[in-house]
Structures are given as structure tokens and as C-alpha cells.
Write a structure and sequence with these properties.
Layout: E1 7-9, H1 21-31, E2 36-40, E3 45-48, H2 49-65, E4 73-77, H3 82-93, E5 97-100, H4 107-117, E6 119-124, H5 133-141, E7 149-152, H6 156-164, H7 172-177, E8 185-190, E9 200-204, H8 205-217, E10 226-228, H9 236-247, E11 252-255, H10 262-272, E12 276-279, H11 281-288, E13 303-306, H12 313-321, E14 329-333, E15 340-343, H13 350-355, E16 359-360, E17 364-369, E18 383-389, E19 395-396, H14 400-406, E20 413-421, E21 427-432, E22 437-439, E23 442-444, H15 446-453, E24 459-469, E25 473-482, H16 491-498, E26 510-513, H17 527-538
Parallel strand pairs: 2-11, 4-5, 4-6, 5-8, 6-7, 10-11, 10-12, 12-13, 13-14, 25-26
Antiparallel strand pairs: 1-17, 2-3, 8-9, 9-19, 14-15, 15-16, 17-18, 18-20, 20-21, 22-23, 24-25
Helix pairs in contact: 1-3, 2-3, 2-6, 4-5, 8-9, 10-11
């Protein structure tokens, strides 16, 4: 019996939205003017769709009054807040490219983003937690002559910008909107830069509007739904899958807090009767293991999306059994693909929703190729995951050589992720090409070992990396977070637990018990840093 190649094409329904973000929002506003559009729990502020439309329009006129032209870049540097959402839609309405600045950035990284993207204006909060944004901005301004204006959105600057817009003709926003095309660039997101300097993935209306729309179509989001959004707006998960997913369906956006807090998120779901919640696995783990978890009425929940990294089986089971998210979906993607390429479906069985990242998204193609030859491998064989279609970015901002390295001449985005396409077309991510551990000639995929170690009764979360070894080239090191109240654990205990259950060469030689893992703001584990720290702390050669 011949084996099928690792290639799949998505369905072609529903059709793609061939409109701008502004035009799509206008349709929702017209259909549901009095429906609730946005809730900011921290301040108690609420907007109907008509009120949201008015405030977006007022801000858009302010941006026009400031002299911003189609294609100009405006940055936003802030945690989740209602103003972030207003800026997202106001810039889209007038064709200004929104540049998302990572809230964790410091002055050096800020200066890079400002200069590389050519920002004319930066909107920011004055400070948040330990970050004094205003001081950092002041510290770099002298060296950034192109940055004409800074608007601190939690000061009088915001009202002043909106007031300036009152001098602009009522029809000016509509006139600008009429000149826009769905293929225009509208957003730049800097990749996390775990290796080398960040690159600005440049995305169009067509890219992100459709991805947000189709991702939420697949969880059957509708106008009656209320989506709790604890994931960051500065990343695709927040601004595309959550915001654009909601506005394209008329669902209510609920912002629980400026940054993720497990108890506040649980309280918000209960108080606002949210029907959906998004999160990376570490967020769901934090909610499920919070001491007050059982006190919150989560009976309104039915769905949500887990993404950012592969979901541990037990965490997904608890989402369904303990949180009532019977239609929860796993989504997989990357910033450069707007982001989602694969997703599970509401009627998928538990096995597919816990063991895979789903199947190909509508209107896209995916394949798994040999990283060396580029040839499509047979189903069941690991290789590099590639995707092609409407979702692939326009390119890295002003970096054609870097773009050509990532997107080949045939339009395929090479993700760097190692995947297996099963016979049923569902895919499993087995790691990053650079994360694969080669121990004495054996290819080891850390994900497999992590899934096994999750079954240990004392282990709450685990990450496995390769560390240098003179004899085998590499050995395995497991970073372990223990459950509350669990006794400590060491390499001998792990070895005893694993012996006879997994191959001897897959059993970690080293175990490090930690409080937390190094990760990006979006919840991606920084395995590069983990490898470095493991080698240093264990006294191994780098």
C-alpha cells in the first residue's frame, strides 16, 4: 500500500473577506450598533459597537490632523488596554501601519524598533509595573529624529490628539478609507529575536483580517459570544485571533487586566459570563492550579483557543472537564503567517485535540519536507512544516534577503518547526529543527519526553533541552516545575520513573528543579537560554 505524501489543502468555504479591516468593522457596527463591543474590566469602561465606532473615528481624525499619510508607521507600546484596541482600528481605518512594540522591550530594543520601522509617532503608556516607558522614550528621542511625536495615552496627550481631530472634515476618514486596498501593509510585528536581532513581519489587511475571521469561524464564534482576552494585544494572539476574530463576528471583547493574572481572569470569566477564553498552556496551567479555582463559576464557558506552544494532554483534559470548554480548539501558527495555519475543529475527538495541532486551515496549503533536500516526506515521517496561501506575510520590513530565506520562490513559508503529518492529515509538532537533540547518533524530539514526564504525579510542568556531552555529543536535561506540596525530585527519581517506559537514550541524564521557565512575553519557551544556563550551572562545555 502506497503512503500518501505529507501535503494537504484546506477547504475553500467560507470565502475569503476581500475588504479592509475598516470596511469589515463598519459592517459589524451597522448590523449591531447597540450590542456590547468592548469591556475593560480594570476601569469598568464599556462600549457598544456604535460607541466604539465613534471613538475609533475620533482617534482616526486626530491621526489625520497630525499629518499621518497612508503607509506611515505609528507605534504602540503598552500593555492590554482599551486604547490599544482603539489605536488598532483607527490606524487600520486610515491606512497607517501599526507597529507593535513588545511591552517587555527596554531602551536599546525600543530604539531599534523605532529606527528600523521608521516610526513617525509613538503612542505609549507612561509606565507599567517596573517599566518607566516615558523615561526610556525620552532617553532615545535625541537619536531618533524621525520620531516626530510621542503621545502618552494615560495623560492629557490622548485627549489633545483627539481634540486636534475636530478640525478635520467629517468625511476625511471615509475619503482616506476609499483609497485603501486589502493588500496594503497595515501591521508590523517584530519576531521575538531568540537568535539575532528581531525582524519586522509585515502583514496586510487581507492577511490578518481573514486569519482572525477564519480562526474564530472554526470555534463557531458568534454575536452572542463574549471572549475573555488575557493574551497580549501586541502579538497576533491578541490583536488578530482575539480582536479581529471578535469584530468580524460581532462578538464582545473582554479585557480582564493589563497583563495576565490567573485569578483576575477566572473572576472576569465568571462576572462577565464569558463564553470563550484564550491562552497559552502556561496560562491555563496557572488558572487550573490557582487556589481559588473551584470558587469561580465558569458555567458560561464553552470554547476558546490554546496556542503559543504545544498543549500538555492533562491540561487540555482539564479545560474540557473542569472548565467546561467542550469546544476548545488548539491552534498552531507563527507571526509570519498571520498567525494560524492549523487548527482542531469543534467536533474533533479528544485524541485529536490533545495529540495534534489540528489540520490545515481554510484557503491554505501545508506540507512537511526534508529539511536538507526540500522534498515532501511521506506521512508519518518528521520534517519541516511549511505553509502557503493568503496568510503568508508580505515580507520582513525592508529586509528582502531575510524574507527570501524564510519564504521560497514558490511562496512557501519555511517555519523551522519539525512536524509529522499523520495519515488522517492531522499534524503533530515534534519540536524546532534547532531544538532536536542528537545523542550518540539518535535523533531525539524533546516534546515526546516532555509529554511522558507530564504523567509523573509530582511534575506540574517540564521542558527538555540538549546539553553538551563529550561522549555522546549531547545529553538530555529536564527542567521541572513541581506541583504544590510535592517533595523535591532528582535525576535518579526521574530515571527510576522512566526506566522500562521509554527508551534508555530518551531518559534525561540531568534534572533541574526550577520555579519558572525563561520565556517570551507571548509564552514561548526560550530553549536557547535554557541550554546556555543548563550548561553553565552543570559545568558542561558549551
Amino acid at each position: 500500500m502506497s503512503v500518501e505524501p505529507s501535503y494537504a489543502q484546506g477547504e475553500t468555504q467560507p470565502p475569503l473577506l476581500e475588504e479592509t479591516i475598516g470596511a469589515n468593522l463598519a459592517r459589524t457596527v451597522a448590523a449591531r450598533p447597540d450590542g456590547e463591543a468592548l469591556v475593560e474590566v480594570a476601569t469598568g469602561r464599556r462600549w457598544t459597537w456604535a460607541e466604539l465606532d465613534r471613538d475609533v473615528d475620533d482617534l482616526a481624525r486626530g491621526l489625520l490632523a497630525a499629518g499621518l499619510e497612508k503607509g506611515d508607521r505609528v507605534g504602540i507600546w503598552a500593555p492590554n488596554c482599551a486604547e490599544w484596541t482603539l489605536v488598532q482600528y483607527a490606524t487600520a481605518r486610515i491606512g497607517v501601519v501599526l507597529v507593535n512594540v513588545n511591552p517587555a522591550y527596554r531602551s536599546h530594543e525600543l530604539a531599534f524598533a523605532v529606527e528600523q520601522s521608521g516610526l513617525r509617532m509613538l503612542l505609549a503608556v507612561s509606565r507599567f509595573k517596573t517599566s518607566d516607558y516615558a523615561a526610556m522614550i525620552e532617553g532615545i528621542r535625541a537619536d531618533q529624529p524621525g520620531l516626530e511625536r510621542v503621545v502618552l495615552i494615560d495623560t492629557d496627550d490622548w485627549a489633545a490628539l483627539v481634540d486636534e481631530g475636530r478640525s478635520v472634515a467629517d468625511d476625511a476618514v471615509a475619503a482616506r478609507a476609499a483609497t485603501l486596498d486589502p493588500g496594503d501593509p497595515i501591521n508590523i510585528q517584530y519576531t521575538s529575536g531568540t537568535t539575532g536581532r528581531p525582524k519586522g513581519a509585515t502583514l496586510s489587511h487581507r492577511n490578518i483580517l481573514n486569519n482572525g475571521y477564519l480562526t474564530t469561524e472554526l470555534i463557531e464564534l458568534g454575536a452572542e459570544d463574549r471572549l475573555c482576552i488575557p493574551v497580549p494585544f501586541y502579538h497576533c494572539f491578541g490583536m488578530v485571533m482575539a480582536n479581529l476574530g471578535s469584530t468580524s463576528h460581532g462578538a464582545t471583547m473582554v479585557i480582564p487586566a493589563p497583563a495576565f493574572d490567573p485569578e483576575v481572569t477566572l473572576r472576569t470569566i465568571a462576572a462577565e459570563r464569558c463564553t470563550a477564553v484564550y491562552g497559552v498552556p502556561t496560562m491555563f496551567i496557572a488558572m487550573q492550579n490557582h487556589p481559588t479555582f473551584a470558587e469561580h463559576d465558569l458555567g458560561s464557558l464553552r470554547t476558546g483557543i490554546m496556542a503559543g506552544s504545544v498543549c500538555p494532554v492533562e491540561v487540555m483534559r482539564r479545560c474540557i472537564d473542569d472548565m467546561g470548554m467542550t469546544q476548545v480548539s488548539i491552534a498552531y501558527g507563527m507571526t509570519e503567517t498571520s498567525p494560524v495555519s492549523c487548527q482542531t475543529r469543534p467536533d474533533d475527538d479528544l485524541e485529536r485535540r490533545t495529540a495534534t495541532i489540528g489540520r490545515v486551515h481554510p484557503h491554505l496549503e501545508i506540507k512537511v519536507v526534508d529539511p536538507t533536500t526540500g522534498q515532501t516526506v511521506d506521512r508519518g515521517t518528521p520534517g519541516e512544516f511549511c505553509t502557503r496561501g493568503y496568510s503568508v506575510m508580505l515580507g520582513y520590513w525592508e529586509e528582502p534577503a531575510k524574507t527570501a530565506e524564510a519564504v521560497d520562490a514558490d511562496g512557501w513559508m519555511h517555519t523551522g518547526d519539525l512536524a509529522v503529518m499523520r495519515e488522517d492529515g492531522y499534524c503533530e509538532i515534534v519540536g524546532r529543527i534547532k531544538d532536536m537533540v542528537i545523542r550518540g547518533g539518535e535523533n531525539i524530539y524533546p516534546r515526546e519526553i516532555e509529554e511522558f514526564l507530564y504523567t509523573h504525579p509530582d511534575i506540574e510542568d517540564v521542558q527538555v533541552v540538549g546539553v553538551p556531552d563529550e561522549r555522546y555529543g549531547e545529553e538530555l536535561c529536564a527542567w521541572v516545575r513541581l506541583r504544590s506540596g510535592a517533595a523535591s525530585i532528582d535525576a535518579d527519581a526521574v530515571r527510576e520513573f522512566a526506566t522500562g517506559k521509554i527508551a534508555h537514550y530518551k531518559i534525561p541524564r540531568y534534572v533541574m528543579v526550577v520555579e519558572e521557565f525563561p520565556m517570551t512575553v507571548t509564552g514561548k519557551i526560550r530553549k536557547v537560554e535554557m541550554r546556555q544556563r543548563s550548561a553553565e550551572e552543570l559545568g558542561l562545555g558549551g
